[in-house]
Every structure is written in C-alpha cells, then in structure tokens.
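[Q] Does anyone have a clean structure-token version of this?
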Amino acid sequence: MVGIHLGPNLTGRVIDVKHVAILAKVCIVTTMQDVAEQAGVSSKTVSRVFNDDPHVTEETRTKVRAAMKELNYVPNMLARTFRAGRASVIGIAVPDIGDPFFAAIIRAVDQVAQEHGMAIVVTSLGSDASRERQIIEALLRRQVNGLIVAPIDADQSYLARWLEHLPVVFIDREPTNLSADSFVEDDRGGAREATAHLLERGHERIAFMGDSDHIITTKLRIAGYRDALVDAGLTPDDDLIAMGAGTRAAEIISELLRLPSPPTAIFSSNARTSLGVFPALQSLGRTDIALVSFGDFPMASALQPSVTVLDQNPERLGRAASERLFARINDPDRQLERRNVLAVNLIERASSASPQKATKP
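[A] Here you go.
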C-alpha cells in the first residue's frame, strides 16, 4: 500500500493514497473571515447567516451565501480533528435513548464505530419536532465525522448544506425534502402481516394503539393495518384507532372496551406503546384480549402470556446504517442504493391466541 504519514500527532496512522485527495480538501480550510472578506461583511454576520438568524437582510444573506458557495465554506471541525490528531467521532441522534429499540441501535452503532477505531456521541431529540434542527446542528458542531439520525420533524432540508461536507445516514425513518441514505423497516408490510395474523385467528375487531400519528412510521403502520382489514373484506373502523397510548394506555383500553362492539385484539404500534399496553391489560384483568407488538422488547417472551411481536432486529438496522456511514466516509462518491428497506419477522407467542382459546384470569 502506498501511504502518507501525518506527523507526530497522528503517529501510526497511515492513509491510503486514495484518501490523499480527500485529506487535502479537508486541510485546506476556508475560514469564516475568508467568507466575510469575500462578501464584504463582518465575521459575525457570516455566523448569523449560517445559523439562519432572521435579523439579516435578504440582500446580505444572498451575498454571504454566494461567498460560502464559491469558497466551499463549512465550519472546520473536521479539519481541526485532522490537524490536532484527536479521536474521530460519529454522532447519533434518536428520539429517545431510553427506548429499548433505539438503545439497541445505539449499541450496534457503537460496536461498528469501535471496529473502525472511532467513538460515538449520542443525543436525544425528544418529542418536540420544532427542536430537531437545533439539537442536530448543535451535535454537528461537535467535530463529528458523520451522523446517523432517526428524525422526528417533517422536514430535513436544513441538512442539505451539511451533506456536501460529511455523510448523513437516516435510520428507522426516511428523510423528507432531502436525498440521503436511509435504512428503514418494512413498516407497512409488517403491520399488514401482524393484522392478518390476528384476523387468521378469528379476531375481526382489532384495535390499533400508538403514541403519535404525526410520526411517519406510525402512519405507515396504520396504512398496513388498514390494508389487512380491507384484504379480509372488513371496513376499517376509526373508533378502533387510538393515539396517546404511551401515557394513557389503561384509560384508552377502558374506552375501547366500552364501545358497542369492543375489540378482541390490539395491535400495538411500537415497543414503547406495548410496555404501557401489556400492564394495562393485566391491571384491568383482560388477558383475554389478544396482543401483537410491532417491535420486541425486554422480557416479552417471558411474560404471561408471552407477547407475539414483529421483530425489527434493531442491531441489524444499526449495523447496516453505520457500515453505510463508514462506506461514505471512505468513498463519498461511491454509487450505492439510497433507500434500503429491511424486512421484519413475526414471532408468534401466546398473546395472539384465538378468541375462543383465550381465558380471563
């Protein structure tokens, strides 16, 4: 291998000749002051434009953006990483780091990062979609060399300028108004299979319970649920679709059971919801209500009754996304499929029994 040594701060690191061009681009840094001089403004104004400060006139904004584009300007965290010889870092942003599904993804990403000699920095986006951009851009300024993100907002176009300088891979949810790599599960197909599974066991009144229908994954799973009902010749009943189950599971189930024709089964939209639905059914003494969860969760197989799940395999998802990220870091121009959909597998357990086989405690 032909390589180049980078000096005492990067002792022992050798970069393949195919990476020299990339390194050269990184080390020739355009500063904020360069942009300011090109546009005829102050460095502070350049900073305000980059951060979309509304107190900048459109004329000034246009001049600064033109200078940024001409000089290929981006905050030089990556360049400083190379010059200082500090450890490389991958950023990962998920809605909730305490969610078992996302926790498993984080572990998988961390393992792959370690295999590549890198560390990870993790942030939680929470549930307020309006804060997504602020949180992610704060993360991007922490000298990360790439980003894996499960978005919560309805628009990721703000990341377009970052994509020119570092790789971003979306996980679990595809980006909107942005072309980027994504790794998602077959949400619609999986929900269709889960609902069909309950229909095959004689359940016709099947409730759908989720936490929020503003999230694209929930929308797709509702669509798959409806698909299966229509396939079976049934008319979907909106009274059986309930949101907010993450915090109000027992209350919602009680309301569903008071319907003139109550459900005999529940399809839970995600593991987080299932962690509320299962104990709620237990507390109401209604273990005769069948349950299927989109997403496995700790102890699901050991509960009584054990819970039928669609296994999303978050470890596989996290590994696939992080391996793609490193592929982009090593070869940004490589031609790879942008959208990647991974299958989910139904694991049948006791909770999806037929109505006539289910018994109350």
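[Q] Thanks! Anything notable?
[A] DSSP finds 13 helices and 14 strands in the chain.
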